[in-house]
Amino acid sequence: MDLLQILTAASPLTFADFMETVLYHPELGYYNRQPIGFQGDFFTSATGDRDFGELLAVQFCQMWQILGCPSEFTLLEMGAGEGETARDCLAAMAETDPQCYKAIRYIIVEKSPQKRQSQGEKLGGHPVTWQDWGEIPDQSLIGCCFSNELVDAFPVHLVVSQDQQLQEVYLDVTPTGIQERLGPLSTPEIAAYFQTLGIPLPGPTYRSGYRTEVNLAALDWLQTVARKLKQGYLLTIDYGYEGDRYYHPQRYEGTLQCYFQHRHHNNPYVNLGQQDITAHVNFTALTHWGEQYGLQTVGITKQGLFLMALGLGDRLAALSQGNIPLNQLLQRRSHLHGLIDPTGLGGFGVLVQQRGLTDGQVATPLRCVMDRAN
Questions:
Q1: Do the domain assignments include residue 191?
Q2: 124 or 309: whose pLDDT is higher?
Q3: pLDDT band for position 372 (50/70/90)?
Q4: What pLDDT shows up at residue 49?
């Protein structure tokens, strides 16, 4: 049975159900079949050299110190891709701060069996385990939960403002293809989402046919993380906007994008199981609902500023003092600049939230100066 047959059997379905199936089906879903990086459909900050993971290690070591250097410090990575970040981060910590490394308990929450296997091949010898959320007791984690380009891949509901009424996109799937149609909202949570954030959708400022996304799965994920975290931080790195910019009336086609062989387009109904489908992250939703779930916002900044505060600028400066072949120097400089390019990876949002810290711990600014980087 192929994906079209599976979708036909489930028809009609919401776009969120469709996206869940084509991305996460245990055998045929995109994330269980496709590699990330040079051989895949897109690059991440972890693709290429080891700088991204090594710079994150600087921040994690400081978090450990702020929490009082506990004997067990959990780093929980959600959606670890091919395992490069975990490998580079742990190797850096082992070399630069052995005491912190000794305290590390590294947990990866990963749906894909194939990804777990490829991650394990890179992480032999490091203190890493793979767990599902159900295996992690509530209020048990002291440390940092983090993700890089995870939330953008959560299934989203598609909605359309039609004659000042909010309707949802449903899919009728047959063996010959997929057709969209509009219908009533599948859950009252969608209307409540806009009301809670003060977004006047539908309304007179939005044209008829205005189309956008609602990521309810992100709120469920946020609640789960908050429930598991006893003391420490949640670090979310992804591309997205604040709520008013995300749902600006001029953004009338939404943010949904598909990636196939390093090219992007806007047709999610082709290349089933062979292309990535993403939507930008609404950081206002993460901060608002985070507060409701007990996660205090430390700050939000851009990845470029975040990595510069962790020492990327020093790495760039060191290149001019090194004695390496010109072609290697240019390649290295290009990689480092790529991580901070404001039109690319450097423009990604970095959100830090915290839970259970004492007044003294909160008063200690993070190395990434989140409280001053806005």
A1: no
A2: 309
A3: very low
A4: 78
Q: Of 277, 217, 212, 272, which Cα lies nearest the Cα of 8?
A: 272
What CATH number corresponds to the domain at position 222?
A: 3.40.50.12710
Domain count within the chain? 1
Q: Is residue 228 situated within a structural domain?
A: yes
pLDDT tens track for 85-130: 999 999 999 999 999 999 999 999 998 888 898 899 999 889 899 9
For residue 320, the Cα-to-chain-centroid distance in whole angstroms is 34
Q: Write the CA distances from 196 to 191, 235, 236, integer angstroms.
A: 9, 24, 22
Residue 373 one-letter amino acid: A
Residue 142 lies in a domain: yes
Taking Cα atoms as reference points, which of 306, 287, 284 lies closest to residue 296? Answer: 287
Helix (H) or strand (E) holding 170: strand 165-174
Q: Which two tokens stand for residue 54?
A: 């090594």
Retrieve residue 230's tokens.
Answer: 């006893």
Q: Whole domain around residue 119: which residue ranges?
A: 34-155+216-239+280-363
Whole-prediction pTM: 0.93
* Among 27, 257, 307, residue whose Cα is nearest residue 152: 257
